[in-house]
Design goal:
The protein is an alpha+beta fold. It contains eight helices and twelve strands. A seven-stranded mixed sheet has the order 1-2-3-4-5-6-7, sandwiched between helices. It is globular.
Length: 311
């Protein structure tokens, strides 16, 4: 498969070399996570997980930190002079100050383990996210699903431009996305979390008038079901907390590159590195054709469900 779209990249960074490195780091991350999840000795010299009783903090933290280190060290070693900043869920507390964007033209946003509850529960529905942003908008996204061994890439010619997305298996085989042909809201299938649902979301979903639903862990995993045509819509509605930049950036890049849509219910695009790391509001991801109508329905419903809520 020849890559037809070339995203904007920093000076001196070549796309094929970058994809080769990302591919290697992704599969290394899959091996690390699967080892921790199975209680096996992790590869690449990472320490075994210790239980709390043994003075450790458990497999999730150990897996998070190991993949985080593998990604950060791997990118730094492969591109030592690259003019980009690296931000991950594990380093955010040290790097981010309230109200102060990092302000980097080129910013990697990484989530070494998205779907920690599913990782702990053994559902296999967890993911790794990597997104390259230019001026706070994603131009390249990678979503790795370690258990089914799916590696999704999304390239955007610009923050709002044409895109190209594909899925790779471990042997290097490539497959195009297969977004569904469903068009009317009443036909669409919702993909939702098992672990993050409240009464407001249930009322909103009812108001959207969708045709069915399916449970799936991790944002990356949810978006992958849309990319495979199994579902059509994902809705994130902030409650006491909100998703973070690293939850959304890579899935957004891949879905939009595939021809789907991902934004606020009122049509406002997602913006990253705004000084708080949050993606609050009513966010809708879909296979595209019904995005505007779903947004209109959501805005109208939320005016009654939660007056004053900023969509």
């Amino acid at each position: 498969m020849t890559v037809a779209i070339t995203p904007p990249l920093p000076a001196g960074i070549h796309l094929e070399e970058l994809l080769t490195v990302l591919r290697r780091l992704a599969w290394e991350s899959a091996d690390i996570l699967r080892a921790y999840g199975r209680g096996e000795t992790p590869p690449f010299g990472h320490p075994p997980a210790l239980s709390v009783d043994d003075g450790g903090s458990g497999p999730v933290t150990a897996a998070d930190l190991a993949v985080n280190r593998q990604l950060l060290d791997g990118l730094a070693a492969a591109f030592p002079a690259a003019p980009w900043t690296l931000l991950s869920e594990e380093t955010a507390a040290e790097q981010l100050a309230a109200g102060q964007p990092l302000g980097a033209e080129w910013l990697w946003v990484l989530d070494p383990l998205d779907g920690t509850k599913d990782f702990l529960q053994g559902t296999g529905e967890y993911a790794v996210h990597l997104a390259l942003l230019q001026h706070s908008r994603p131009v390249l996204g990678v979503v790795l699903l370690p258990e089914p061994e799916e590696l999704w890439f999304g390239l955007l010619a610009s923050a709002d431009g044409a895109g190209e997305a594909w899925r790779e298996s471990r042997d290097g085989s490539r497959f195009a996305p297969t977004l569904s042909a469903r068009r009317e809201p009443g036909e669409l299938v919702l993909v939702a979390s098992r672990n993050h649902r409240d009464d407001r979301l249930e009322r909103l979903v009812q108001a959207l008038g969708l045709g069915g639903s399916r449970a799936q862990g991790s944002v990356g995993g949810k978006v992958a079901t849309i990319l495979r045509g199994e579902t059509d819509v994902y809705v994130s509605l902030s409650g006491r907390s909100a998703p973070k930049d690293w939850d959304m950036a890579a899935p957004e890049a891949v879905l939009r590159a595939a021809g789907g849509a991902f934004g606020h219910a009122d049509g406002t695009p997602l913006a990253y590195d705004q000084g708080h790391g949050l993606q609050a509001g009513c966010l809708i991801a879909s296979h595209g054709p019904a995005q505007a109508e779903l947004g209109r329905r959501a805005v109208a419903a939320l005016a009654e469900i939660d007056p004053g809520f900023r969509v």
